[in-house]
Write a structure and sequence with these properties.
This protein is α+β, with helices and mostly antiparallel strands. The protein has 2 domains: about 70 residues, no CATH class; about 220 residues, Ferritin. The chain contains 10 helices and 5 strands; from the N terminus they run αβββααββααααααα. A hairpin with a 2-residue loop joins β2 and β3. It is globular and about 55 Å long.
Length: about 325
């Protein structure tokens, strides 16, 4: 699967900058009503008093760093609002202290919040954490491919990818520190050699969906980031991430030859769910200036990118 040609398509999707509503609403308590570690990192839910207009629900614009309380010393990167009825003046806000844009996550990964520095620095710190986590993800993938008798070329490409991710983690960590942020350490569990179906499901979700979208986002960052050092870094990262996405599709093709029809169907369903979740996550927005600094696509652009990839690869 050759993915380099997708660059012109996803970059051309376009989209207006997000509208940020800076009118504050009022949090009932800075203590979360629930918290956990979601697919994109730490999350916390809070209860607010306010109307749709006050809290930005009517036009979809949210100033997440202002609306969300700090969580373990970190400032929210994204958020979303919900309410039971349009007349209800009590809102729930889900605050996200991580990002969905990059990284093949290994099984058992524990993500931590990024603290210190600017909003751009904290977002870069989360990206750096995911890049570091991808090192072990690719190393373990190579081990599993070898254990299951995969072609040596696939194992070699996975090991090459792990070395790429070492460089990425160092590069993005330097960028985060330049912005005053502290990069959290990666926490994970000891990994076992899994059944082929389990490997295929993870590869479909983390490789064919998340890494493929991450490569597309990196291409956009390389061309549109206002920060020249970010453009330069992601120009190199985008090339590597595209190659990693191609590896994911090559691994998927080999795994298909080893799975039963029922197993292949379950893998396809897992990929479809991951694609739907990713498309939904594109509605989340960060501070407008941060997005411009880092070249991150605005929500409308990101959703168009994801839908284009869904139509061409994920469906």
């Amino acid at each position: 699967m050759q993915l380099a040609a997708m660059a012109s398509t996803v970059i051309a999707c376009g989209g207006a900058d997000p509208v940020i509503n800076t009118t504050p609403c009022h949090v009932q308590s800075s203590t979360p009503i629930s918290m956990g570690s979601g697919s994109c990192g730490p999350e916390a839910d809070f209860r607010f008093n306010g109307t749709q207009d006050q809290c930005g629900l009517a036009d979809g614009g949210l100033d997440c760093p202002t609306l969300c309380p700090t969580y373990s010393g970190a400032v929210a990167i994204d958020c979303s609002l919900s309410q039971e009825t349009p007349q209800d003046n009590v809102l729930d806000i889900a605050c996200y202290y991580g990002t969905c844009v990059t990284g093949r996550r290994p099984e058992g990964l524990g993500l931590s919040v990024a603290t210190g520095g600017t909003s751009s620095g904290r977002l870069l710190a989360v990206m750096a954490q995911l890049e570091a986590a991808s090192v072990s993800a690719f190393t373990h993938l190579a081990r599993e491919l070898r254990a299951h008798g995969a072609p040596g070329e696939l194992e070699a490409r996975a090991l090459d990818a792990s070395r790429d991710e070492v460089r990425h983690a160092r590069t993005v960590s330097r960028l985060a520190r330049r912005h005053g942020a502290r990069v959290p350490k990666v926490r994970g569990e000891r990994q076992r050699v899994r059944a082929l179906e389990d490997i295929a499901v993870e590869n479909a979700v983390e490789g064919c969906v998340r890494e493929t979208f991450g490569a597309a986002v990196a291409m956009v960052q390389a061309q549109t980031a206002r920060d020249a050092s970010v453009r330069e870094a992601f120009a190199r990262i985008a090339v590597d991430e595209t190659r990693h996405a191609e590896l994911a599709w090559a691994v998927a093709e080999w795994l298909d030859t080893r799975l039963s029809p029922e197993e292949r169907d379950r893998v396809r369903r897992a990929r479809a769910r991951a694609a739907a979740e990713l498309i939904e996550s594109t509605s989340r927005r960060s501070d407008a200036e941060t997005m411009k600094d880092l070249g991150l696509p605005a929500p409308a652009h990101a959703r168009a990118m994801a839908r284009e990839l869904h139509a061409s690869l994920w469906s």
